Amino acid sequence: MSTTINPPPDFERPLKSQSEFDEYMEEICCKEQVYSMALFDILGFSNFVESNGNQVVLDLYNKLLDLVDKQKSTMDGQESIAGSVVPAPVSNDWKQNVLIADANGYINVCHFSDTFLIYVNYQLSKRPFWLRDQKYEPYPLLLGEIGTEQYPIMYDRHHIYLSFLQTCMDFFCQAIVAGIPLRGCVSTGLAVMNPYKSIYLGSPLVEAARGETAQNAIGIAFGKSFNNSHPVYNDYFIPYLAHIKEKNKEFLSPMMLDWARYWRESSYFNKYNLKDCINKMNNNPHFSSYYDNAIKFFDFSANHKNWSNELDREAITDIKDYYVKANEWYKSVTN
Asked: Which domains does the chain have, with CATH numbers?
């Protein structure tokens, strides 16, 4: 049984062969389009390489490549052995959902020096497996900031975004186990990402680069594009401010990607003691607070796993109102 890759809206027919797929991917990479991306840097890279050598970094990149390769569906129907499972809405208000597996987009990665880049566009999506399990989300986040640009395709194919976020969290957690400290930032927007000609440019790259360095902890932040390009489902993020450097507040959303929840709910990662893994990396006094703050975030996430049910939702009309309520909640549980 052959696999048909769902075509983009402007494509006249499904792509039925690997050569057709490769040709189309090379064509669309030349054009500006909507991408979601995450940029990760190694904290204290020079000292890290001096202490650990280049091979440790190369091994992590190979793990990232393996992670992406396992998510691929092949043209002959040999589906992924590790497809992520994400919710997909079956009601207009996004509250009623079913879980689907192997619904990723075609994720790309690149690595240069101490930087890892994971990115995906929304032009092509895989045929998912629909599972029998259902998920109910009483408060899906469907609010965008009034008067700002939004990208409907990202919500038409929201499962791609959610699977991309899972890839980012899996990579970050793999790095912790490997003893490599990463800071990352997720952004979405218009960009040209052409691996065939090594062209990478666009505002989301700038946003991710600024947001990565604006944190005083290892972890994964959201840039300001979160305002219109956010996960609908609240268990992918959590309000958190303690990781933001005071002078760089304008670069980040007050939301963190909840990698700590991902760690706790993973049958693979939860076998490891998170605090032990992080403390093993904490061997440079100059960066000691970055590791301590990551542990604090992990504890915060565990203590407030049902945070979205605790928000005061009265008079919320857009993302700015939502941020006000989220900040009020955050202050109430941290003071």
From this structure: 31-304 (3.30.70.1230)
